[in-house]
Each structure stands twice: as structure tokens, then as C-alpha cells.
Design brief:
Tetracycline Repressor, domain 2, Arc Repressor Mutant, subunit A
Length: 225
């Protein structure tokens, strides 16, 4: 395996330290000089690797997305493209669905790069309109859009019951986002949040799976609305 050059190593350390500082103090509050000091170099040396703080931020965004995509590809979930996951979720079992969701949430909470990036965005969304738009797109709109597209296909194929895929997506995604936000603020509640999240996923599955609904009806049960 090819070892990283000293230049590549320094460049990565700049990104790591910048993200750490951004996640603690916010993007605007951290200067290039402060990043350089954390790395153990002078500002002029940092500019040999990145032309500006904005370029550092852009590289952090690219690296965060790259890491997340590698992980999600590994568990056959492509949050940026619902079409790629149609076959994965067509006929998926309740156990496998709960497992995949748990894997995604635990990764999002515990991968240092991904969690720090989300916390940085959480801080900056109230200070900068550009960051607010990026936060909404990355952590809200993209998730709803992905699930709406997926549910639209699964409704058409008869895999799930429903009429409005957009509403179903909101119903499914909202508790997921809520549990992640609680964990970010109160990490000690992670076990509780994961338990609640699993209950949400299982309830959603049993509510909208034709097979589960028919089974409940045969037993004289009722669908949870």
C-alpha cells in the first residue's frame, strides 16, 4: 500500500484540525492562523496547501461526502439516488430494514468526521444563509426526496401500501432526524433514541407492508394509523 507523502499528510492534518475547530467554535469564528497553529505550522505554510479558508471548507465537504458514500455503498444504501436502492428494499424483511437503519444512524453518530461536520453545520445554519441552505438540503430535503422516490416505486409495485409518497417520506424521516438531533445534544441518551428509532421503523414496516396488514386483519388486529 502506497504511503502518503509528507505533503499529503500535512494537508489531511489541516482538514482534520480545521473540522475539529469548526465543530467546536463555528466556521466564522476560526481563523486560518488558528488552524495553522493547531496543526503546528505557520499560516504561510498552510497557504501552500490551501489558498483560503473557503478552500479548506470545500475540501472538508468533499471528504465528508466521500466517506459517507463509501460507508453507505457498503451496506447497499445510496441516499443520494433512490433508484439504486429499489431492488434492495423491494421485499426487504423487517429485521433487515431495522438493521440497515441502525447501521446508518450509528455510523452518523460515531464517525468522527461525519459527526463533526454535522455539528459544524448545526452551529452555522443560524449565522449564514448559505450554510442554512446546505444544512436543509443535506440533512432534511435530500432524505425526504430519497424516501419519497423510493416509496413511489414501492407503492407502484405493491410492496407497501400508500397513496402519497411525499407524505409517507415525511412521516418516516421526521423521527429519524429528531433522534439524531437529540443524540447530538445529549449523547447519553443514545441507547434510548436507538430503541425508539427501531420501534418507529418496525411500526412503519408493519403499518404499510401489505403482508403484515393482512396478517393483522386475519388475527382481528387493527392497523396503526
Amino acid at each position: 500500500m502506497k504511503q502518503a507523502s509528507k505533503k499529503e499528510d500535512t494537508k489531511q492534518r489541516i482538514l482534520d484540525e480545521a473540522l475539529r475547530l469548526f465543530s467546536q467554535s463555528g466556521y466564522d469564528a476560526v481563523s486560518v492562523e488558528r488552524i495553522a497553529s493547531a496543526v503546528g505550522i505557520k499560516a504561510p505554510s498552510l497557504y501552500k496547501h490551501f489558498k483560503s479558508k473557503q478552500e479548506i471548507f470545500d475540501a472538508i465537504v468533499a471528504e465528508t461526502y466521500r466517506r459517507y458514500d463509501i460507508f453507505t455503498d457498503g451496506i447497499d444504501v445510496h441516499v443520494s439516488e433512490s433508484k439504486a436502492d429499489e431492488k434492495v428494499f423491494d421485499g426487504i424483511s423487517e429485521e433487515m430494514l431495522a438493521k440497515k437503519v441502525r447501521q446508518l444512524i450509528e455510523y452518523s453518530l460515531h464517525d468522527e468526521y461525519v459527526s463533526r461536520f454535522r455539528r459544524m453545520m448545526t452551529i452555522e445554519q443560524f449565522r449564514n444563509a448559505e450554510f442554512a441552505a446546505m444544512y436543509s438540503e443535506r440533512y432534511l430535503e435530500r432524505l425526504v426526496r430519497y424516501h419519497a422516490g423510493l416509496f413511489r416505486v414501492l407503492i407502484k409495485s405493491g410492496t407497501i401500501i400508500g397513496e402519497d409518497s411525499d407524505t409517507l417520506a415525511l412521516e418516516y424521516v421526521a423521527p429519524v432526524v429528531l433522534m439524531v438531533e437529540i443524540c447530538d445534544r445529549q449523547p447519553e441518551r443514545e441507547a434510548e433514541c436507538l430503541k425508539r428509532l427501531e420501534a418507529h421503523v418496525r411500526n412503519f414496516y408493519r403499518t404499510y407492508s401489505p403482508h403484515m396488514v393482512k396478517t393483522a386483519e386475519k388475527r382481528g388486529g387493527k392497523r396503526d394509523g
